[in-house]
């Protein structure tokens, strides 16, 4: 599935649609350059999970855990890790197979440790400020979310 958003607000709305379809134990592996919109789409996902906290990039703390009325969100930024071994040493496995949703920014660094059912989300910013968002390994349609396009 490929989507295009023109504004941060549209990216958040797409995140809300994605979030409505997520289930406990789902893992989203995000790829995208700095400022691609990874945290922006995560904000929309968090809203759909019933999270009221402000979502910020976990670049310096590595993992941010949020409690939501639907389920928890584990938001990870593995950019500063040296590789998969560091990821495992953080206790990430507990979250990957837990009762919440995991979103992993810079996921290519820990690809070998991700479950087979991982949802892959790649965000590509365009020169005009729009975004192309590609979702792979997820057998749903966003129309199932009950929201109008």
Major sheet: order of its strands?
Answer: 1-7-6-2-5-4-3
Shape: globular
N-to-C SSE string, H for helix and E for strand: EHEHEEHHEEE
Tell me the β content. 15-25%
The number of distinct helices, counting runs of at least 4 residues, comes to 4
Q: Could you describe the 3D structure shown?
A:
With 149 residues, the protein is α/β, with parallel strands linked by helices. It has helices spanning 8-21, 38-48, 84-89, 92-96, and strands at 2-5, 27-31, 63-66, 73-77, 101-105, 119-125, 131-136. Helix 1 (8-21) crosses helix 2. The longest helix is centred in the first third of the chain and has 14 residues, at 8-21. The chain starts with a strand and ends in a 13-residue tail after the last strand. 38% of the residues are buried. Mean pLDDT is 86; it is low at 144-149.
């Amino acid at each position: 599935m490929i989507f295009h958003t023109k504004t941060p607000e549209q990216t958040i709305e797409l995140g809300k649609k994605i979030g409505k379809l997520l289930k406990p134990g789902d893992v989203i592996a995000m790829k995208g350059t700095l400022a691609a919109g990874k945290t922006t789409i995560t904000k929309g996902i968090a809203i759909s999970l019933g999270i009221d906290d402000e979502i910020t990039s976990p670049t310096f703390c590595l993992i941010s855990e949020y409690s939501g009325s639907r389920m928890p969100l584990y938001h990870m930024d593995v950019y500063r890790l040296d590789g998969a071994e560091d990821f495992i040493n953080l206790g990430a496995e507990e979250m990957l197979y837990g009762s919440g949703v995991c979103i992993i920014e810079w996921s290519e660094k820990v690809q070998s440790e991700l479950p087979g059912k991982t949802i892959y989300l790649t965000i590509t910013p365009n020169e005009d400020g729009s975004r192309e968002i590609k979702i792979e390994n997820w057998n749903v349609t966003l129309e199932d979310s009950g929201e109008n396009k």
